[in-house]
Amino acid sequence: LAVLLSSLGLGTTLTFASSHWLLAWMGLEINTLAIIPLMAQHHHPRAVEATTKYFLTQATAAAMIMFASTTNAWITGEWDMNNMSNPLASTMIIIALALKIGLAPMHFWMPEVLQGLDLLTGLILSTWQKLAPFALIVQTAQAVDPMLLTALGVASTLVGGWGGLNQTQLRKILAYSSIAHMGWMIIILQYASQLTLLA
């Protein structure tokens, strides 16, 4: 357990500290690989199902990030995060990161995954696991059309608010609350980036 939690910290720190897409991607994947055993530690069918859904979603997002960053490196000649001059690659990376953190309309996995987990693992999934992808969104936000991020933020806020209204299950309420809060953070990032962490 200590090794897995240390790996979570290592992956997030690696992503925070990197200005190179390959290292950032490695940090995200260390995070994903560290939390999967935590999710599946209770050998319950719902936990295994949640773990499988989470893995497939994160693997898809990771493949998109790698493809987009490789495309950007091919066009610009460098892997630096601050040189995201290709609009297609920038948009693909933002969409992949939105999938990773569960922004609407790429949020469908999140309520289902949280429903199958115990509360402690769900807490880690809905807080700590979002730090690294959100940091990458903050770093690449200036390279993307602001309307895309605003649309993702507004959609997440609406979906999170409406989705949680008729829920009777605590974990799904937490999932929709997390989606809505991430939406607010994305909206604020566009207009007052220094206030984002207060959202």
From TrEMBL:
It is a multi-pass membrane protein. One of its GO terms (molecular function) is NADH dehydrogenase (ubiquinone) activity. GO terms for cellular component: mitochondrial inner membrane. It comes from the Eukaryota. GO terms for biological process: mitochondrial electron transport, NADH to ubiquinone. The keyword Repressor does not apply. Belongs to the complex I subunit 2 family. Keywords: Electron transport, Membrane, Mitochondrion, Mitochondrion inner membrane, NAD, Respiratory chain, Translocase, Transmembrane, Transmembrane helix, Transport, Ubiquinone. Residues 18-192 form the NADH:quinone oxidoreductase/Mrp antiporter transmembrane domain. It is found in: Mitochondrion inner membrane. PANTHER family: NADH-UBIQUINONE OXIDOREDUCTASE CHAIN 2 (PTHR46552:SF1). InterPro entries: Complex_I_Subunit_2, NADH_UbQ_OxRdtase_chain2, ND/Mrp_TM. The keyword tRNA-binding does not apply. This is NADH-ubiquinone oxidoreductase chain 2. Its EC number is 7.1.1.2. It catalyses: a ubiquinone + NADH + 5 H(+)(in) = a ubiquinol + NAD(+) + 4 H(+)(out). Core subunit of the mitochondrial membrane respiratory chain NADH dehydrogenase (Complex I) which catalyzes electron transfer from NADH through the respiratory chain, using ubiquinone as an electron acceptor. Essential for the catalytic activity and assembly of complex I. It comes from Nipponocypris koreanus. The chain crosses the membrane at residues 52-75, 87-108, 147-166, 173-192.
